[in-house]
Amino acid sequence: MSSISIIIPVLNEAPRLEVLLPSLKARAETDRICEVIVADGGSRDSSVETARRHGARVCKSASGRAKQMNTGALEARGEILYFLHADSFPPQGFDQQILRRMAKTPCAGCFRLRFEPSHWFLNFFAWWTRVNHPICRGGDQSLFIPIKWFRDLGGFDERFRIYEDNEFIGRIYRNYSFTIIPEDVTTSSRRYRKVGVYLLQYRFCVIHMKRLLGAGPEELYAYYEKHIRGRSA
Known about the structure:
Shape: globular
CATH class of the largest domain: Alpha Beta
Structural class: alpha/beta
Number of helices: 10
Strand content: 15-25%
Number of strands: 8
């Protein structure tokens, strides 16, 4: 049987880790999770101490989710990598679900998405995460992938300070099999509440369209800096 390394990129996420890490233990239903790696990008709060107190391994990295996830993957011992955001909670038995899919045939994949607190507009977009197409993907859904595939693809493109999940998942779709497990990852809608549900979704749609029209990493990040980052801090 395969083993799973969970990789969580963080920056000042101590309160989230305080809830997430015990939750992962409670929701796991196998003994095949060999480690939880918290890839810290220079937190100034107690993220590192919180992670270690809950039994996670901590690896230090330059800031940037792509860099942090690549750093965590370099240290991983599992045959399957499972990337998870600090404010996203996988379903009960997530590890068993991943292993069952892998037992059928090697694949990469994710879960469907649900927002908490709920909102009808966000629920509409979350519904589309059951559709197996790269435009319906995002990092909040989490991502599992065989470590060999991850390495063969070269990992996340560190030029992308945003959109790194979508860019990498696009490469997975072009080269390997991708599956959607019909269970929900529950992710926080806190950023939408700060910026505005409709406005933030519009901003993310613009970023997607810019990328489809050929925008590079710096153009995407400049738009994010101008229209999203300051509002959601």
